[in-house]
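3.2 Worked example (two chains)
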Amino acid sequence: MSIEITGVPGLPEVKPGDDLAALITAALPDLRDGDVLVVTSKIVSKAEGRIVKADDREAAIDAEAVRVVARRGRTRIVETRQGLVMAAAGVDASNTAPGTVLLLPEDPDASARALRAALPKRVAVLISDTFGRPWRAGQTDVAIGAAGLEPLDDFRGRTDPHGNLLEATVTAIADEIAAAAELAKGKLDGVPVAVVRGLSHLVTDADGPGASAIVRGAADDLFRFGGAELLHARRTIREFTDEPVDGEKVRRAVSAALTAPAPHHTTPWRFVLLESPEIRAKLLDAMRDAWRADLEADRFTEQSITKRLSRGDVLRRAPYLVIPCLDTEAGQHAYPDARRGAAEREMFLVSTGAAVQNLLVGLTAENLASCWVSSTMFCRPTVREVLDLPDSWDPMGTVAVGHAAAPPRDRPVRLPDAFLEVR
């Protein structure tokens, strides 16, 4: 196979409202059927008026980002509204007028489709941008928009020349073409478009799924959070979808919980996984009855009782429950006096809190939502009886687990100053 990649010089400075198709056609009069055009996102952004003042750069990043994946110093790696994970949400100060920055196209796939439709030949259009990559130094161009080309080539189910079945190979064709085209465009040469020839067999009549098909979904993303951001990503979620929870993901989160520190080289935590809807309902009904009996004994009104019992509804809405327990026979030392006995107990309680936090963070890493509720601590005998637990297992609340029904609301960063006393 022979492939020819040529930069397209002669394009003028692009301004908001310019007709990109007309500008490219004038600069490339020999455009042919079967060509693949690779267009730098910057000129698409300029034509679409995606320009803001440089003073508003941080605000622009905030507006374009849906979550922070990682940060180091002033550098933020974020997920954009388009689903792309990149530095500074793609807000770029290069190759634009002083005092301005460029935002990514609002919908790069739609931009690619519109440009393709306006060109006079049967071509494919890729819109490219520059990305850094995990575990690799340097940057390379990738496709953030695509039309007229299948962005992925799936080899799974085929065999190699040795007869081996391919089970994981999916080639990102659009990204490979975008990276190769950058060699002909260059970073400083003022050539924002390249034409690739020799790939006409990849050009399709239909626009295709677009470059959004390359974006890995959250459920399949093993590296959804940077290490420093994972703790901040853990949120309390009280509304869940009906999507079932993968028990293996919960078990991996329990493995994370087991890394918590514990006194005397013990492992004093136990985790009860309630995967059966019938068992969950039986437990929650029994807990409700126990709470009601306590509230009635306290002479609460029926209205107040109903309101207080409704706080446990989050557990009924969750498709999966985990009950962390402290095993009081797992190594606590006995002391003859109350002071040291209480300290020993508190030491193990703190350790259990660390294990619960690790569990919650582990669930977040598995893209599962969770909510810790203290309910089981108020009716421990009931929980032990319904679940047939040993008397030494002390339930430490319940963790509701599921898939979030909606993204969590933003919360301000808590600065540590108000919580510090430095000596």
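3.2.1 Second chain
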Amino acid sequence: MGFHKKPTTFIGHVKVKVENLQRSIEFYQDVLGFNILEQTTSTVKLTTDGKTSFLSLEQPENVIPKQGRTTGLYHFAILLPDQSALANIVVHLVGKGVRFGSSDHLVSEALYLHDPDGNEIEIYRDRAPFEWNWNSDEVAMTVDPLDFENLLKYATPSKPWQGMPAETVMGHIHLHVSELKKTEEFYVKGLGMDVVNRFGGQALFLSYGKYHHHVGVNTWNGAGAPAPAKNSVGLESFTLIFDNEGARKQAITNLKRIDADVFEDNNNYITFDPSGNRIELAV
């Protein structure tokens, strides 16, 4: 649908920190159906198509468990290509005895579960954009019960879940932040996103190209929540992919105009949102 490929800016990669890399690899392979693209003693890049990676895991030195009531990862969201894939992974997870939550967001149908370290994962499929309900510039989203009876009609017992489909992508990321005013300025004026939904005074949903959201932010861990320790389980970084070098340079210029720091390291540009969430700016 064009929301996760150029010319739209999109999230190309998420890196999360874990306590025990081997334990996590087993979960992401055996339960979620990823394959390994590259691996070192402390990191692994996961793949669904055998060629590219949109998710990687890192075991930091002296790693500590996930810290509560901090900023950072709320969840990252894996977007499946269709309803049958979502139905088939439901059957697969139930067969594995994996506990998960679920929701119908009007724009999508979603499952929620945690990896062995408590990093939350959303697995979802989008409804067609013509089914989304827009009121001016705001898209309608909600948290309704998922209709499993209807969803499971799309399961294909003759072709059961065989791992993440090759067309799977990183759909969006949702972050805990310490406040919303400066956060909105950072993502809108700095990174060029549009606010497409406001959830009271507690959350914002932002996107490029009229997607329902590439980034969600919330203050549900408390206004003024501190950043977690660098060696804590949780989010290490996420990467935004811009259409071209000109678009990336414009974003860097805009970030500097609002006094956001941008660092360069071998043509790799890095910034941090006001709550300390690390963002890599790539082309």
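3.3 Remarks
The helical segments are 21-31, 83-96, 148-151, 181-190, 245-257.
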